[in-house]
Design a protein that fits this description.
It holds the Pfam family SBP_bac_5. The chain is of the alpha+beta class. The protein folds into 3 domains: 161 residues, D-Maltodextrin-Binding Protein, domain 2, CATH 3.40.190.10; 128 residues, Dipeptide-binding Protein, domain 1 (Alpha-Beta Complex); 255 residues, Dipeptide-binding Protein, Domain 3 (Dipeptide-binding Protein, domain 3, Roll). 23% of the residues lie in helices and 20% in strands. The chain has 15 helices and 21 strands. Strands 1, 2, 8, 9, 10, 11, 12, 13, 16, 17, 18 and 19 form a 12-stranded mixed sheet that branches. A hairpin with a 2-residue loop joins β6 and β7. α8 runs antiparallel to α10, α9 packs antiparallel against α11 and α14 packs antiparallel against α15. The relative contact order is 0.16.
Length: 570
């Protein structure tokens, strides 16, 4: 990316122009802020999105009742405080939580923010056929009601020891009722203007949106803090790749902040020698993992492809195959070569916070090719024709392994292909453009939720420090399928009644230590079933310009969570 056009050139896409960029120089003295999210945003409605490339840019505009700071502490945001049993905000029977809103809130169009907007948002997500990606956060919610203009009460069907799932964190912000009231249910997907330019309470408002390319924001003139934000305008640009994004901050200095720098750590450190910027890192819960398709992805199945209706996978439900594939991987090498100081080998999908981390699966930390071969031998998988690929009952151990286009992921793919070849498993590699792979287009055959492959690799995380909603992703009713428009995060199509029972038990358990014990058991069930094969506990890696002040790297919420505090050094 040698010239500015390579970062900020205009790409084709939907263009929605909304407002003239106003001058707020007296309030936003730091001028313009350039941010690069190389996985380009395609929608600014977190309820209809499945990835941070959309959810985090939307966080400049849309805000939740509470969120997590950089230490993982839950802090009030649009709410006046955090409801607890001690302050009366949560009832002793744990079935209701009452939120009191700040009295100084205004939407960016100048209208009043009220409890009715909060009630509407909950109903928006819970309305059937709306395609809400965050519906798991509203598990067990029966009613949401406005007690007055500043008070909202949520009632749960059962005691909710951790009632901070709905409307808390970057994934479930508040929508304006007046803007979205015609977008309930099946109409949600067709509300193009609203989904591209939501009205919010955040420090910025959308000026222009080019889907898959760029979003331009200006300071919200009705923001509750008269001295913020520090910048008058912001551009979030998509496109390119992680290496060019890093270069734009660390070497050329044309960008102020670059997100998700999944770049060879040696290359990244060398770039930082350019003196234009700094690499910033933090650890939360993200794990780079392999998702194992437990259903048959054969194209011959038509609409039943990669669904439970199409039947089980020909060999990826065999515990011996899954255990062998995991044992063949040298996670320490993957972490060191791909992530450096921002990666730690892991055998768990739930590596943090520490109280939830299991040690039951740590044997995978040591690569053991001999054990992998023996597991396959004992299960009857043999290379009978000498072509290097094992087979059994006419089925060859040949996998299609897909992931998003990214240098570190392609290096990891190559490593795994080599190790699996050593134990007699053939691997075809496939790379998909990130904006497509992580996109929500139900018509695309290449989305990670449709999963038309045997194995795929990516990272996601849960905001905050309680894993209940995250672990609910692998319950039976979270499986993407044609009937639900391929929504849900149970990508492996894992379904176990015992796991679902533990999820229900977790929802009713209030003692932290007991919750942690249940969470560890759920983690272990997923690992031992081979539904997922964790590789690396990933730290978040981004870069900021040396002139950009106020950034507090946050792995528990949006990286842009405190953008109102960002300023330019003078």
């Amino acid at each position: 990316m040698g010239d500015r056009r390579s970062v900020w050139g205009i790409a084709a896409g939907i263009i929605i122009s909304l407002l003239p960029v106003t001058s707020l120089a007296e309030r936003s003295a730091s001028g313009h802020l350039n941010i690069l999210y190389w996985q380009a945003p395609t929608i600014l409605n977190p309820y209809l999105s499945s990835g941070p490339k959309d959810i985090e840019p939307a966080s400049l505009v849309l805000e939740p009742l509470a969120r997590y700071d950089e230490t993982g502490t839950l802090v009030p945001w649009l709410a006046a405080d955090i409801p607890t049993r001690a302050n009366g905000g949560v009832t002793d029977d744990l079935t209701t939580i009452t939120w009191t809103l700040r009295p100084d809130l205004t939407w960016s169009d100048g209208t009043n923010f009220t409890a009715h907007d909060v009630v509407f948002t909950a109903n928006y997500c819970m309305t059937p056929d709306g395609g809400c990606q965050q519906v798991g956060k509203f598990s067990d919610v029966t009613t949401v009601e406005a007690l007055d203009d500043l008070t909202v009460r949520l009632t749960f069907a059962a005691p909710k020891p951790f009632p901070y799932g709905p409307l808390v964190g970057v994934e479930t912000p508040i929508l304006q009722k007046a803007q979205f009231q015609a977008c309930l249910g099946a109409a949600a997907q067709s509300c193009t203007a609203q989904n591209a330019a939501p009205i919010g309470t955040g420090p910025f408002r959308v000026v222009e949106f080019r889907a898959g390319d760029v979003v331009t924001f200006e300071a919200n003139p009705h923001y509750r803090d008269p001295d913020k934000p520090g910048f008058a305008t912001v551009t979030i640009k998509g496109g390119g790749d992680a290496i060019s994004a890093a270069r734009a901050v660390l070497e050329t200095g044309e960008v102020d902040y670059a997100w998700n720098l999944q770049v060879d750590p040696a290359i990244l450190d060398k770039m930082a020698d350019g003196g234009k910027g700094q690499i910033i890192r933090s650890f939360g819960t993200p794990v780079e993992r392999l998702m194992i398709n437990r259903t048959d992805p054969s194209p011959s199945l038509g609409k039943r492809r990669s669904t439970r209706a199409g039947g089980p996978h020909p060999f990826l439900t065999d515990p011996a195959v899954l255990a062998a594939m995991s044992a063949a991987i040298d996670r320490a090498v993957v972490a060191e070569l791909g992530y450096g100081a921002a990666g730690r080998p892991t055998c768990d999908i739930l590596p943090a916070p520490a109280i939830y981390a299991s040690s039951a699966n740590d044997a995978c930390l040591t690569q053991n090719l001999d054990r992998a071969r023996q597991l396959l031998d004992d299960a009857g998988w043999v290379d009978s024709d000498g072509d290097g690929v094992r087979e059994k009952d006419g089925v060859r151990l040949s996998v299609l392994f897909q992931t998003s286009t990214n240098p570190v992921r392609q290096d990891t793919q190559a490593l795994l292909k080599s190790w699996w070849s050593e134990i007699g498993i053939e691997t075809e590699l496939r790379q998909i453009d990130p904006s497509v792979f992580f996109g929500g287009d139900p018509g695309s055959p290449d989305t990670f939720q449709k999963f038309y492959a045997d194995i795929q690799m990516f990272t996601n995380f849960f905001p905050g420090t309680d894993p209940e909603a995250y672990l609910n992703n692998w319950t039976c009713n979270s499986i993407p399928e044609p009937a639900n428009n391929w929504l849900g995060f149970n990508i492996p199509r894992y379904c176990d009644a015992d796991y679902d029972a533990l999820a229900a038990k977790l929802a009713q358990t209030s003692v932290l230590e007991d919750r942690a014990g249940i969470a560890r058991r759920m983690n272990d069930m997923l690992m031992q079933a081979g539904a997922l094969i964790p590789l690396v506990h990933r730290g978040d890696v981004s870069a900021r310009s040396n002139t950009l002040m106020g950034v507090r790297m946050n792995s528990w919420d949006s990286e842009l969570w405190n953008i109102a505090d960002w300023t330019r050094a003078r």
